[in-house]
Structure formats: structure tokens, C-alpha cells
Specification:
The protein contains 7 helices and 16 strands. With 281 residues, the chain is an alpha+beta fold. It has a 6-stranded antiparallel β-sheet with strand order 2-1-6-5-3-4. The chain has a 5-stranded mixed β-sheet with strand order 9-8-7-15-16, covered by helices on one side. A 5-stranded mixed β-sheet has the order 12-11-10-13-14, with helices on one face.
Length: 281
């Protein structure tokens, strides 16, 4: 089932205008959500990020878009589409409808909710080999627009094609200063000795929902210090661990970058603590 502006449709029935600005110009923002046993994980953080993204995109936020209303729409869609599922993911896309920005009437705002099932309600540790490489064909700009989840993902698409053609599981993106920013599908964390690092928002990385949770948990580890600081490509081969975070997968340990192989102890500890936090929430 597809939720289009609060009404449920089958995939065949759901129709949006081919002239909507999300399709024409990438004039859209979205949230990827993980739902566990009927609860949207970190929903308040997702909602606040969505509202901030809409403001950055200068969208007129409809009065209807309260946290309670959108939560209800997401959960109703999941119940209709996957009534027996214990774990699902949803994508909430908000876009401007067709019309010019320089006309007397601004384009209206619409939303679309799609869903899929997931295998488990909690995060699992993935011990399979996971090799990465740098994507250096194009650079990510270290500006405010890079920190929001918009439909403008051309750089990530091209990086994904590069990874697939060269048999890598993922790629890391660089900003215009040639510093490491993030992975194609999530934020990057680096462990070196007793220090855990992640690039700052000012370097252009996504303001990730799970990034925020992992930072909070990392600061609680007694044997480690945490730094939100710029990471150079040279640090990657000196690191003890690398891992990627996003709200759907959780924590994805990186096993290899070029000739360097990594451990997974910190990522295992953080997954355990993250699942405990979810259960107690």
C-alpha cells in the first residue's frame, strides 16, 4: 500500500503528477524510518530533521504536518501493507507539487509514504567481509544543503555505480577540501587507539539520526574518548576500526580498505548498547 497525502492506495492506483517538482528538479526531502513492533525508532529526531530540512528548502510547512499526524499516517500505512510484520522500513517523501516558484500562488506541498518489511526488529552485527574504496570522481560540497536528506543524490548514485563496477561494497565520499565526509549510505566513524572520531557537520556530512545516537553512546564508553573532527584519507589506513551508520542497517563494520583490514570490537559493543537503548525506550 502507498499513502499519498493521507489516502491509502495500491501501487497500481497511486498516482502523482509527472510534472511535480520532486521529479522535475529534485525539489523534495525525505526521511528513511525503521519501525520495530509498531514503534518508529527515534521518531522525534526524524520529525525535527524533516521540519528543519523543509525550512532549509523554503517549503511552506502545512499546518497539518504535526508530529502526531505524520506518525499516525506512517503507522496506518504499515498496518495496511504489512499487518503481521515485526519490523519494517518506511520512506516519507515531501515534495512541492507542479507550478513555478515565481507565480502569485506557490506550489502546494504533498507527501508520499512507501514501506517494506525487514528481517529483524533489532540491529544485528554483520560479520561478512565489507570492502570499501574512495570515490574521487566528484566531491561533496561542505555546505548546509549537503547535510539534509534531499532527492538530489546524483553524487551518491554515481558512487554506487563505481562501487558496483569495481566490486566494492561501498565508497567513501570526499568534500572539496579532499577530506573524508561519509559513505554512500550513511555516516562514517573511525576508531584509532582509544579515540573514536566522526566528521563534523561542517564538513558536509548528513545530519544522520543514528549518527546522533552513536555519538551519545560513544561518549559513554569508559575506555574511549570521542572527537567530532575532520578525517583525512591518510587516517583510514592507520585506523583500527571503521564503520558506517544509518537508521535502517544500524552499524555496518568495514573489514577492508585497500590493503588495510580492520577489527570490529567497538562496533559490536555499540550495537549491543544501541539495542538495549531501543528496548528501554
Amino acid at each position: 500500500m502507498i499513502n499519498l497525502n493521507g489516502k491509502l492506495h495500491t501501487e497500481e492506483e497511486a498516482k502523482i503528477s509527472p510534472f511535480n517538482r520532486g521529479l522535475f528538479y529534485g525539489d523534495a526531502v525525505f526521511e528513511s524510518l525503521r519501525i520495530s513492533t509498531g514503534k518508529i525508532l527515534f521518531w522525534e529526531d526524524h520529525y525535527l530533521r524533516l521540519m528543519a530540512s523543509m525550512r532549509i528548502m523554503r517549503m511552506e510547512i502545512p499546518m497539518l504536518f504535526t508530529m502526531e499526524y505524520l506518525e499516525k499516517q506512517i503507522l496506518n500505512t504499515i498496518i495496511a501493507a504489512h499487518p503481521d510484520a515485526q519490523a519494517t522500513k518506511a520512506r516519507l517523501t515531501v515534495y512541492r507539487d507542479e507550478g513555478g516558484l515565481y507565480t502569485p500562488t506557490s506550489p502546494s506541498i504533498s507527501f508520499l509514504i512507501t514501506t517494506e518489511t525487514l528481517e529483524t526488529p533489532f540491529y544485528l552485527h554483520n560479520s561478512k567481509p565489507y570492502e570499501i574504496e574512495l570515490f574521487k570522481d566528484y566531491y561533496l560540497n561542505s555546505g548546509l544543503l549537503s547535510t539534509i536528506k534531499s532527492n538530489n543524490k546524483l553524487l551518491h548514485v554515481l558512487g554506487g555505480i563505481f562501487a558496483k563496477e569495481n566490486n566494492y561494497d561501498n565508497c567513501l565520499l570526499l568534500n572539496e577540501n579532499k577530506m573524508v565526509v561519509e559513505a554512500l549510505n550513511g555516516n562514517l566513524f573511525l576508531v584509532s587507539g582509544n579515540t573514536i572520531k566522526t566528521p563534523p557537520i561542517t564538513d558536509g556530512c548528513l545530519r544522520g539520526i543514528l549518527r546522533k545516537q552513536i555519538i551519545e553512546l560513544a561518549k559513554q564508553l569508559p575506555d574511549y574518548t570521542f572527537e567530532e573532527t575532520t578525517i583525512s584519507p591518510f587516517e583510514l589506513q592507520k585506523a583500527d576500526e571503521l564503520f558506517i551508520t544509518n537508521v535502517i542497517t544500524g552499524i555496518q563494520p568495514i573489514s577492508k580498505y585497500r590493503k588495510k583490514e580492520y577489527g570490529t570490537q567497538v562496533s559490536k559493543d555499540l550495537i549491543t548498547k544501541l539495542n538495549v537503548k531501543i528496548r528501554l525506550a
